[in-house]
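call fold(seq) -> tokens
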Amino acid sequence: MAIAIDHAPRPVAATTSSSPAAGRRKPPKWLLAAPSFVWYGLFFVLPIAVIVIYSFGVKDASQLVPVDLSNPTLQNYRDVFSDLFFDVFRGTLEVSIGATALTFLVGFPVAYYLAFRASERWRGLLLAAVIVPSFTSFLIRTLAWRIPLQPAGELSTWLQDIGVLSGPIEVLYTRTAVFIAIVYNYLGFMVLPLFVALDRIEGALREASKDLGAGRISTFFSVTLPLAGPGIAAGVVLTFIPMCGDYVTATILGGTKGFMVGALIESQFRGSQNWPMGSAMAVLMIVMVLLSLAVLAAIFFALRAIGRRAGRPIVDAWRRRERPQPKPSRFPELFSPLLAVWTGLVLVFLFIPIVLVVRHSFNGGAAFTLWSGNYDTVWWGGEPGRLPSGKPMVGLFDFGTTGATLLRFLIVMAVGIALPRVWRLVTRRDPHPALRLWAAPGAFALAFVLNGLLTDWYADLFQQAGVGDGLRGSFLAAFGGTVIAVVLGGLSGVALARHPGGWSKIFMVIVFLILVTPEIMDAIALAGWMQRLGGPFTNDIGPLPFGMLRLWIGQSLYASAVVTLIVRARLSGIDESLEEAAADLGATPRTAFRQITLPLIAPALVAGGLLSFTLCLDNTIISALISGASSTFPVALISATKSEIAPFWGAGAVVLFVVTMAALAFLAVTLRRSGDSSSDIAATLGGG
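ret:
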């Protein structure tokens, strides 16, 4: 018995050792996320910590980083609570809370209609109509509001002609203009998470509520609204937090009367060079945001708890009441048309600024925001014309270069798109999934390379140096930031989905902080940190400008967090039996990742990459504060807003809009081919 017991484990050991995977030491669960840990620690955690330290310093203009930390003080925090600064904080909070509430009130009926009333045939189109304005350049959308709000503009003149106003509109450069634009800019980001939450409510739950005697209103408040809670919370986070740190809208439309905290912080860093004061303001802004979210969450949970306790007897009594003979009501018949009309009006509201930008890019006059009364293509390119003042006027594009470039692009892209279909016709077999997925983006990359080899189109395409340099810088910065985001986010997403552990909680906290930290805070933290580091962050590396390196790093932070969530969500819904089988057959982790995991997450990587590209292309705040000598289109445009804006900036804005829409269209096609519904696509655009 003793001998048998002594030798019994040996065959098992032999069997185990004969397995190809036996004895192989497993790597740490967090290994794939290690690059992201290092990246976020170096360019997010440490910079934020340095800003907190700077807030206790004193301004010292004699130093490269104008902060003296030899005598720490709380004076900066005392100064922030002075009447002047505190009024700005209070005004920002009032605008942000009011605008968040209004976006919810305006957006919830739209999301409800899309989820429950719109037919499947129209749902995707209507959802696209919400997405398109939301992902158009934030700066362009904000600037577009100068057109209808101009005191001498067409709207002001028309309202005076019909007798509605006795004088011109006096809204521009006030807090009212900021409020209107903020609601417009963030409305889509309230609708998307609300739609996702409502669309995932099972219809059987709502029908069961009605079968138990609940009416439409009772069902809405007892079933629909509580189940939409996650969407409401996500919508509040996606709108309220960036509103608090928004300095672009206040700078473009607010003037001195519409000043907000973000603009105030930016002025302390770039204007007065008072980094300690700006740091203290940034820290208090974060505290203000977190406390506001905590208060809103407490109110939400308290009201829900009170409603459940106090409302239950009322609901039960209401259901036990003697019901009279039901009277026919026209409300159900009118409800859907009313929602449809409301949705249509909201969509018109979302597209008004975009239509105005496109129209004014063909303005025959000298100013972008004032319509001259006639259309002209001279701002787009061709032969130079002349302004009414007699000064020479040159369009954006050199059409001689543009025509040949576009023709080559179209030919190569057509070949790439047609390749899978030609393969099917010739071989009578379905093409490999990788061919279907990568044919179009591969053709796009090949078109870039081919045009670069045949001509200097990239350098000669634009006649307007400021706009052309800005667009080139935007594309280059977005490309670099996207590559970093896809690599870091892809690895982290796989680690979170396949190798969770104690580390994943810490990592998700960091990701959450990146997503909820106002962008102005990230920008000033990176600006100070990179200035402190020096080296490649303050000096060019060969042909690579240090400003472009800064842009790649700064734009990759938020984008990589979004890619992480997308890949994690995608991989969590896929059975890992294939990967386990590969390991059982002796495949190394690297081989299994390359041959099994990577093809599974390829649609998520493409989707995350395209979404990252659109986010980086539109980035304004980080680009404006850390770009150095490197220019992007938003940076160049926000500088141009300090004087009269020529219509060729509108032409550049339209180019950026077309590129963004092409990326979003390809993103939607990619997700559709991978089996995603409209709700899944909306969830992806909302960050996973």
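The chain has 30 helices and four strands.
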